[in-house]
Amino acid sequence: MEAAHPPQPNSPPPALQLVTGDPLATSGADKTIAWLSSLASADAGNATRLLYVLLLKRGLDLIVASLMLVVLSPLLLLAALAVRLDTRGPILYRQTRVGRRNRPFTIYKFRTMAHDPGATFVLLRDDDGTMRHKVHHDPRITRTGKWLRRTSVDELPQLFNVLLGHMSLVGPRPELPQIVAGYESWQHQRHLVRPGLTGWWQVSGRGDRPMHEHTALDIYYVENLSFWLDVRIALRTVRVVLNGLGAF
């Protein structure tokens, strides 16, 4: 059962009731128990919800991701060709992200920036000083990259991450290790589920939201994860992508 309202900007971080401290600090059976308790905390005793979370969600991911790869294969080939013809460098961009239970994995995207083998990750600040993952008018983004980002086509290679079990179609977006290293313990609760190709914060402002608001939205999703919430996010994603909201 979904909560009535998601957290609002600048609201205090929500806390799960059945897990204290960092749920990722445990191991083995204790970690599994903490994870299951957290998933059940929003509406304990809802067997349908747990059945979806533990069994059906992964099956749907495999079926839908496979169908999407088949249907979208012409678009994927076109995007790959455009990246190749635009600038020198690899077609795919590979980057380490933090997944479920704090496990690192390699995420795949179409490359949208000029290739620089010596480049390192830096946190960016917008004109008003707000820290963000992205900023408007980033000079590193290529011509093709602007189109790929505006249409979100750059994210489609992550369908392979879904098939590999690193990600889900819907879930918190996977974060960079450099950022996760600075998390407080409550923020790690976003890692209780697989990260997603799309998520609650993506349909609630995407790149227009500052970084500190993402975690509260992600934890809202974890606490209220259900089939209908995933459907709601998926439908909103279609609208957001078609309108290009928050994409840059």
Characterization of the model:
The protein has 248 residues and is mainly α. The protein has helices spanning 28-40, 47-71, 73-86, 143-151, 158-164, 177-180, 214-224, 227-243; strands at 92-98, 104-110, 124-125, 131-132, 168-170, 196-198. It has one domain (47-243). The protein contains eight helices and six strands. The strands form three sheets. It has a two-stranded antiparallel ribbon. Strands 3-4 form a two-stranded antiparallel sheet. It has a two-stranded parallel ribbon with strand order 5-6. Strand 1 (92-98) and strand 2 form a beta hairpin.
Can you summarize this structure?
With 248 residues, this protein is mostly helical.
What's the helix and strand layout?
Elements: H1 28-40, H2 47-71, H3 73-86, E1 92-98, E2 104-110, E3 124-125, E4 131-132, H4 143-151, H5 158-164, E5 168-170, H6 177-180, E6 196-198, H7 214-224, H8 227-243
Features:
mainly alpha; 8 helices; two-stranded antiparallel sheet; 248 residues; 10% strand; single chain; two-stranded antiparallel ribbon; 40% helix
Helical segment count: 8
Distance between the ends: 34 Å
Going across the major beta sheet, what is the strand order? 1-2
What's the main sheet like? 2 strands, antiparallel
The overall average pLDDT, rounded, is 77
Structural class computed from helices and strand pairing: mainly alpha
Please mark out the parts with pLDDT under 50 across 5 or more consecutive residues, or reply none: 8-29
Total number of beta strands: 6
Q: Gyration radius, to the nearest Å?
A: 18 Å
Query: What sort of overall outline do the alpha carbons produce when their principal axes are compared?
Result: globular
Percentage beta strand: 5-15%
Tally of domains: 1
- Order of helices and strands, N to C? HHHEEEEHHEHEHH
Helical percentage: 40-55%
